[in-house]
Write a structure and sequence with these properties.
mainly alpha
Length: 132
Amino acid sequence: MGKSAAETVKEIEETRDKIESEIRVLEERLPKPAVWTKRLIGLAVGGGVGGTLFWFGVKRVRKGRKAKKQQAAPVNAVIQVLPEKWAGKVGDALENGQVKNIAIGIGAVWLAVRIAELRQLRRMNRALVASR
């Protein structure tokens, strides 16, 4: 490579020109049917790829139209999460105002379990420290 940037660029351009002229000479040596065959193969491959992309696009548009048609008709479905017996009890509790008592009871049970878990972890940590 040259000592300056200008010399390097000049060398690169000379190399590029040399390669291009060699390619042109090789193309001239190829028989004319080979050039046309190459073009036909390129056309066939390009057409195949283009056709495939076209049909993928058509399929996507059709799917979109189907999805829009299906969205237009909403389904009125009732999904029962709770069994019938429990649903009645929950409904009665909501009407009578007993929900607060039930929520406080669930919270108290959770708190008791959490405190018991913390006590057990403390005991285990003390046992680990003592065993060292």
